[in-house]
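Input.
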Amino acid sequence: MHKAFKYKLHVSRAVGERLAATLDVCRELYNAALQERRDAYRLAGVSLNYYNQAQQLPVIKQECPDVAAVHSQILQDTLRRVQKTFDSFLRGIKAGERVGYPRFRSKNRYDSFTYPQLGWKLSGNKLTLSKIGSCRIYLSRPVEGAIKTVTVKREADGWYVSFSVECDRCRYIPKTGASVGVDVGIENFATLSTGENVTNPQHLRQTERRLKRAQRNISRKKRGGQRWQKAVHLLRKQHAEIKRRRLDFFHKLTLQLIREFDNIAVEDLNIKGMVKNHHLAKSIADASWGIFISILECKAAEAGRRVVRVPAVYTSQDCSACGARVRKTLATREHRCLECGIVLHRDHNAAININARALRLGMEKVASPCEPRTYSA
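Output.
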């Protein structure tokens, strides 16, 4: 099992300048490789790959001192990113999807580099990066497993490092034998088939006034100036804070679910289609159901739990007691069945149906990050 551990770095001014210079070189190399591939195909009909471009690195390092000052592993990984981008582009074309041609990266759209094998050393709370220097690392928790790759990333409030590790054991959590259906929503973030409701924290809505004020502050500044850059930096820090609050909420909630239940059923939602409703798009994006379910699946796989996505059609309309279909609009928040007389909140009714559908499927098709999600009726 592969996991990632992310930590904050405390860098000096000199090390920070070298980190930024490394990012600039990687971005320029990425754009140059992209330009070369595009020109080779347009002018000569030749498709270049990673190996064609990696063979040119020794010559480039002789002619460009700034490229020679960057570790060779970082440069090779930059060219691999270009290869992955084109592979994804070609897969989308073959699948008949609408995909855009790979784009050049601006300074604000290239913010990380990776040591795939060598070039780093971790000793206690000190991280040494080849051709960059040493810096302190805030080890908020120990690194578990063998470190495979090291990625340094620039964020709004500083530099971070992510260790991709390979673990040989999973987290042990005692089995409970219980199953649950989870219906995600806007009124309540989640409603369980047991009747429990999880309040929607609305992280974006709570800080919306601060974000609007920061955005207006940017609009008053001259674009590209130092005061404008400072205002943009403050806005990015606020968005980063919202993101971390949301992830903290997701990690705590998913851990609670896998501790209490062995089998967890969720809806297979078409979130891309749902956000096209302009009345609910901001609330749906703020809830971030897709990220929540992805984290739930990863934690469940690590702990030996099972998560299954069931079709979402008619989960709110069908009666969980007798199966009768009770038509209702989205504004109707209560489920009243005329056949059996049961009265429930519509989200609680949907959660019970989700759990029942998963049990009927026998929890056979488990949605995991490593396999495609397929379902059988």
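The first strand starts at residue 2 and ends at 10.
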